[in-house]
Amino acid sequence: MSKLWVLLGLADRKRLGYLPIGYKLMLTFLLFILLLVSANFYISQTMYDDTMRKQTRVTIQGTLIQIRDNVAYKVDDIVQTSATLYDDPTLIQSLRRKEDSINKYNRLEKVIIPKLESASKAIGLNLRLSVYFHNETVGESYRIWEPENNLDFTEQTFNIYHISHIHNKFWYFTLPKERYNVTMQWKQVEEDERDERISMVRRIVDMKNPLEIKEVGIMRFSVRISELFESVDYTKLGKGSLLSVVDPYGNIVFRSGKLDEQDEGQAKADKGLRSMEYDRPHFLTIEEDLPQKNWKIVAQVPLNIIEQEAKRVRTVFIIIGILCVVLFTYAGFLISQYLSKRILKIISVLNSFREGNLHKRIAYRGKGEFSQIANALNAMGEEIEALINKVYLTQLQKKEAELEMLQSQINPHFLYNTLSSINQLAKFGENEKLQDMVVQLAQFYRLTLNSGRTMIPIAMEIEQAQAYLDIQKVKYGRRMEVDFDMDVDIWPYETVKLILQPFIENVLKHAWSGDRIHIRVSVRKEGDSIMYRIIDDGLGMKQERIDEILDSQDDSHMGCGIRNIDQRVKLHYGKEYGVSIFSRVGIGTSVQIRIPAKRRKQQGEKQRVNRPDF
Q: Quick check: helix, strand or coil at residue 506?
């Protein structure tokens, strides 16, 4: 037993990778030091970066608010100017009527043109006011905007069109449903994209019926993008910065500043419509919403200055961290050496106990934990030495008693069934069959008793099963067919006796699905296990029935023989071995018994075991 413990101990060390306690303590100290230094470095660096970024962000945010207010001022001018035409009673009233030629001229010269001219000149920007009326009796007056007419000086013009010019244009019929004094859109329409302009599109409505808003026209205020966003200037943020105006769809409407070569190439590839084009990792990005249009100004400020300062601070922390690691590692080495010497003495005593040497003792001076452990180990060694034989022998006797009890439950069961068959043969006067069955029964019990041994050669177990089948052949004759499939490698091994016959008996008792049945008995060596298989083509059974049979908590008589065999195998070899059943109703059943492949002891065997003939 002591040699076995030594071998198991060596195997455990090789399998788990034995590491002395001193190294474990040292590695533990080192791990905590690295975690402490890393956490300190990370927290300090993060706090410094956050402080610098917050200061920079506050400054930039103030600049963006000023830029936003300047843009909002110009936007408000255009919105307020459009409000003078939105539901002007005089203008709407003149547009309701279908005028003749004279009145049409007066309406145009005295009402429409003065109002449009006043609106176009109300803003000091290069403004193109275009209106599209549903009333086609209003005369058209407009300029054709060619590229050469894209003048640089400040001009205010107005154009009058019929609605037929835009009734099939996408930008017109995608205008949202009118909400009074709210609905308006900023977008590039008509010649805007070509001339680098942008328009505010809004309806002119008739509120004669308060319950219905009627569209009488569309007005479009077109301004230069460069003039509208004149205050969006990257130089206000510093060299290398970038200012962008982004619409609600993520498109870049206006940009001040230059992209680097990589970003510029990507922007050209995406045709300037990259929704996240301003998301660059080496820049501090700040956004500020523009009122009324759901646009936003995005500022990108290079982090070079912050990064340079952070790099200097990071270098100082790294030097301090390295010094801390070196000093604490040396201190941890001294502490681990002091503790590991004491722990190794305890391990030495425990290894001696495991090897069977219970006489070794250890002593520490003082009242600390190590002295308490030493006293406990000494007392444990004495108690183990006194109790080991008693407990060990008691467990062995208990296990053998359980095995014998389970076996004794199987033999009477088989004897009862066989005597019942002999009774039937005697009743019907089958004397020859009766005589053969009695002879085979005597042969069966001669093999079963086997001088009281629990372990027998596999060949003898097969011979015992064959003797049982010879008994049954007397009863069933040609109605029963049996095939044996034996592996030649199984003969040197031993087995718990009487584990095949009960399953064969169970087939003949419960599996008949007609007047014939076929049984296949297979015994093979598979790896480190011996596999018994009893296969039949009988009735089969449901999985619920299989679970009931193998349930160790089931106390019913049904299936007790199979449960007993499963418990015998598990008691003798362990829980990983035993019986498993696979069955399909109407197809048949396969029973598998798995035991470890253990060679039988040749010494002390008085009886010569022959391989059975099949």
A: helix
